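User: Structure please.
Assistant: Input sequence and predicted structure:
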Amino acid sequence: MKEEVALFEVLVGFACNNNCRFCSIDFEKRRFNKTTAEIKHDILRAKQSGAEILGFTGGEPTIRKDIFELVEFAKMQGFRTVRIQTNGRMFASKEFTEKIIKAGANYFKFTINGHKAKIHDFLSQSPGSFDQTIAGLKNVKAFGRTVEVNILINKQNYKFLPPMIKFLVDLGISQFTLIFPSYIGNALVYKDDVAVKLSEAVPYIKEAISIIEDYELDKVVTVNVPMCFMHGYEKYAATELSPMRTKVVGPEFDINLDNKMKEEKRKAPQCENCKYSLLCCGIRYDYADLFGFDEIKPVPGEKIKSPNDI
């Protein structure tokens, strides 16, 4: 049976103009990057897959000298959406922003680490990056294009999730993805700076979601947060409840993201007593390595077999 793909993401390489403490990529991998020809081959594969959305990710795709050529090539293939996942710094240039939009990019997924430069720049390890990223966000919005924001939840920013949401809403953002990171690569090296327990962060995640609900915004989902932590907010546990139907190809891998995320999660013995056990895959293995399974409290009740029953 043909693999169903909604989003085909091309990881163009690991080079980046930030060195984020929470990044799952090891700094030593930065030398692995694809050629223009290899990426065009991936774009053609994406078209053959039937995906309607073509995504460029990294590393940081916007620092490539061939990025305009690649975006234009993707547009020529007829994708409904050509998406750029980015730290946003290059978009501080209005000329760059206009050029990449004219080339065909029409959806932008910014990663923003804090609502103040002190937090964001500490995490990115790039002084001035906050101001550049926010300027970039404003430039993209000025061209009338959609911007979604990824927030990587960590020790430095989790208590500020509610004001972060309000700050970003004031900038016109209506779509959010709240991600608990993978503690591999840089995130493991800098674990003392970034690692935080789910039980500590979840109250602030819920408060942030409540704000998004109050504003009646377009989208909010969480990634890597099991449903047993999300009482009253279970429907936002996106990776558990609905397939992402995403394929990612990079310099070293070719993966179905749904399968990959399931493979990397672990269940505690007590999970078998949870009413969500048939839907939930547990917590990431690297999170379990750091914090163990003691936080996991099974939710009593009859086993739920379908997300529609939540």
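The first strand starts at residue 7 and ends at 11.
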